[in-house]
């Protein structure tokens, strides 16, 4: 979940507005003691060229690159030292570079008493242990981002901050258990570290309502059951618990999170059914339960109570039963992934009611969620064109139906072709029969079609050759017959797209025309007879001429023997 970029953008706009508003008004110079603190910080850092104008001779530190001051008091309030913040820094100085900082963290940071914003993200401090004094900064900061470094060690309990705090410690090597947090932390991103243990101590036994709105624990080694004590976390808008080792069921107390918009539980060991209590989470936009062991039927109430859903990703579970027709009521749904389950029955013919998949109008490229600190962007992994890809910046543009690897039967409903904004359609590895819908070419936006390993019959519709954006096609192992329609797209695919069918024509190789066996055998026999008889008559002529000369000379018994010998030779040669 990328909430950092939009938060920084808001700050940039705020700074530009403040600078414009205060133009012509004398600005206070920075505080001398704070300038000295900044110089000490620079001394401990590598890549000093990145901070070239941080020098004693340049007295007004409020004009230094990556330093922001209060325009009234002159106190340093923000240090934007992340390597990805060049856009923001360049709005203040053209000297901002793309180099990464290294070296050591200086305790002079504590001398900046009015500092509320500190960004050290995506630098190169090496495998460094965070010093104990550093965590004291959280008592005054409103924003701390040290993500994308190689910081290590344990994270202490963070219980002292008085103001609301955005805390991003992701993509480091922190170990140990989850830290305790104060009720004022509003965003907590601990994703992609090496944290282990249970969530119980972190989550349960809270006396007051917590203000946390975003919780991201993805990509750690957390284990045990997800605790059933979410009642004190009602401000949560997004929960990201993917890629851990959680077991047990989805806790029913999650139904108390009525502000929840995004719930990601992918790639754990969760089992059991989806709890009915989630009917209370009516603000949900994203449900991602993929790659678990969840079972039971897909609840029909999802299509009735969770009417704002944009994404349903339930792939690689053990769901059974039919695809509920109530899902057709989700007019905002853009991604429906129910692949690799045990679903049966027909594909609902009402699927054309998924109106968000009908529009070809470009929607926002990102799916965002509002918090009191601004917006963050959702992200998830999707199987598209036979490859698992991570989507974040373009997730809002994806319109996908994947029902592959189930036990679905019946025909592909003609109504499917009314989803004219669809980018990817995967119905492979089912028991579908009948013909490919004749109007499939109406889905002009299709880039991926996989109908392989079904029992589809008939010809490939001519309209399929009109899919000019199609870059992945698999129709293999069906009962399809006839010639492949000519068209630039279909002829560009490999033979593997049509294996196991009775199709012919490019790109399949042209079979050699077989020569009838009777013609081959007959020709050989005729030729053989003609050659043999010519040879025989030549031999007979030779021997007759020889006898006419030799016989009058032979008057003895030895001459009779010679004639018998010659006739014997003729007889052998004749046969």
What is the tally of helical segments?
Answer: 8
For the report, how would you describe the main beta sheet? 16 strands, mixed
Find the CATH topology of the largest domain.
Leucine-rich repeat, LRR (right-handed beta-alpha superhelix)
How many distinct folded domains?
Answer: 2
Strand content range? 15-25%
Question: Structural class, please?
Answer: alpha/beta
What is the averaged pLDDT score? 85
Q: How many beta-strand elements? A: 36
Order of strands, main sheet, comes to 2-3-5-6-8-10-12-14-16-18-20-22-28-30-32-34
Cα radius of gyration in angstroms: 39 Å
Q: N- to C-terminal separation?
A: 94 Å
CATH C-level class of the largest domain is: Alpha Beta
Please mark out the parts with pLDDT under 50 across 5 or more consecutive residues, or reply none: 3-24, 85-97, 519-531, 553-575
Task: Categorize the overall geometry.
Answer: elongated
- CATH architecture heading of the largest domain: Alpha-Beta Horseshoe
Helix content range: 10-25%
Keywords: Cell membrane, Glycoprotein, Leucine-rich repeat, Membrane, Receptor, Repeat, Signal, Transmembrane, Transmembrane helix
Subcellular location: Cell membrane
Family: Belongs to the RLP family.
InterPro entries: Leu-rich_rpt (IPR001611), Leu-rich_rpt_typical-subtyp (IPR003591), LRR_dom_sf (IPR032675), LRR_N_plant-typ (IPR013210), RLP23-like (IPR046956)
